[in-house]
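Same chain as my last thread, 453 residues:
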Amino acid sequence: MNNSDDTIAAISTGTGGAVSIIRISGHDTLHIARSVWHGMKELGPENKRTMMLGKCTSPDNKFFEQAVAVFFPGPNSYTGEDLVEIHCHGGTLVSRKVLELLLNAGARQADPGEFTCRAFMNGKLDLTQAEGVSEIISAQSGMALNLAERQTNGILGNTIHEIRSSLVHVLSECESRLDFPEENLDWAPAGQLCANIDGAVSKIKKLLEYRTEGAVLREGVRIVIAGKPNVGKSSLLNLMLGYDRAIVTPLPGTTRDTVEEHAVIRNIPVRLIDTAGIREADNIIEGKGIERSIASIRQAQIIIWLLDASADHGEEIRTMREHLSGRTNVIAVWNKIDLLKISGKLPPTGLETAEISVDRNTGMEKLLDMVEKHVWGYPHADEPETAVSTRHSSLLEEALEALPDAIGNIKIQKWELSSVNLHSAISALGRITGEDASPDVLDEIFSRFCIGK
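reply #2:
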């Protein structure tokens, strides 16, 4: 990050809205804002947290924009510093002109995430809460948004703080035995110290159970729809999306290339991939499409292999097994069950199997239940308490690795070694919340933010 003593400014809203918001934060905020925005009442402590109508003008009076401004005095502001927001008309030119005036008056263009970084540096939020702000902005589903809101409200950070505090207490007990070995102090029994560490271990393991949720909600899931030509793959893609994305015709081989689309299915961000039907290619173009289909199958996290219930069942299953040997992330789906002359006569596939009719939109709920189970690894009726990111889980594992050794050393009264183990765990947890985070880590985290956040 740049110099934290600078006064910074940036447009905080996206393009296309009716109103744009420009933020200014830093020790010189009022002076800079007053040089650009002028109203019947002056921005200042006497009018704090009050939206006031005025206008933004250039020094030569050639630019005039009616705008509303509000002053939030530090430390009771988002950044913990004096902060002003100017609300002007939407549109790229207007907001950029107001920002240009502020920069010419002495503000510096804010770096990505610099407002939230200053909030973190000034103790307004911990690092998990700051990351939660970014998660809110990038949330792709209702569940992701709810979990991001909880993280911003401190659910994850508070849990980490509790675990860390309990370990700091145990560490103080261990180090006091080193510092005052001859003193008859009121030390807690070694068994109680081990029990406290066991409690921390249980809480860390509980948090690590939410790794899947974090990865899925942030990165999404690649679902490939595959099978022979003309089994209804493109129709299934369109049905799962809720609109016509892929071309559907009765002719085999209509899809010559992969068709990819993002969607949210049962709160799961997914990348649905429709593939060319797998068979002996009639021409070079179709052959290239089939090669891409096979490559997509290799990269898939979940494969929905569509089978034609109205065709030769044995041939359908043989083709599937030929291309999916050894794969466990597969849902076999019999389509066109409405065309079966005798119901209930489909042979077993050896895989988890659903029966649907895309044309009649039947059996889809069961198929989606199976998809959900494959994603989470278990039925997922309720939202998790929180979600941990790859960064969080790596540091939680680092802390967890040190704690059994701490318990073992306490049991044999090796207080110095147990202190080393505890320091390692406490440091890892502190890097999650930001108490022990390095400047490079902070720069990397906040660089992912939008400018103006």
